[in-house]
Amino acid sequence: MKWHKALNITQIPMEGDIKTIHVGGKQLCIINTEARIVATQSYCPHAGGHFSGGWCKNGHLVCPIHRYEYNLKTGRGVEGQGDYIHIYPTDLRDDGLYIGFEESWWTKLWS
């Protein structure tokens, strides 16, 4: 796992907010919900809607286009959707929020 600093403490979104950032070559949404910080891919796999315009409801991220819902712990869509979103590990440290990215075996071998 390779950790990238994503935000300073003061940049972390307020409870209930969703913020789009770029880190590690990816565009992600940072979500502050239910007393935890979650990092997800920034777009809905169903129709490409941007999650920054969505909201959270009962532990799910809701897409603003077709109201598709994704579990913020597992990334799985609700029953019948058959899709999922990627959830990235987060680590809130004294100096800010870090996002973890899996390293490919190729990167590990040659870096």
UniProtKB/TrEMBL annotation:
Gene3D superfamilies: Rieske [2Fe-2S] iron-sulphur domain (2.102.10.10). One of its GO terms (molecular function) is metal ion binding. The keyword Oxidoreductase applies. The keyword DNA repair does not apply. It holds the Pfam family Rieske. Keywords: 2Fe-2S, Dioxygenase, Iron, Iron-sulfur, Metal-binding, Oxidoreductase. InterPro entries: Rieske_2Fe-2S, Rieske_2Fe-2S_sf. SUPFAM superfamilies: ISP domain (SSF50022). It comes from the Bacteria. Residues 3-99 form the Rieske domain. Its cofactor is [2Fe-2S] cluster. Belongs to the bacterial ring-hydroxylating dioxygenase ferredoxin component family. This is 3-phenylpropionate/trans-cinnamate dioxygenase ferredoxin subunit. It comes from Pedobacter psychrotolerans.
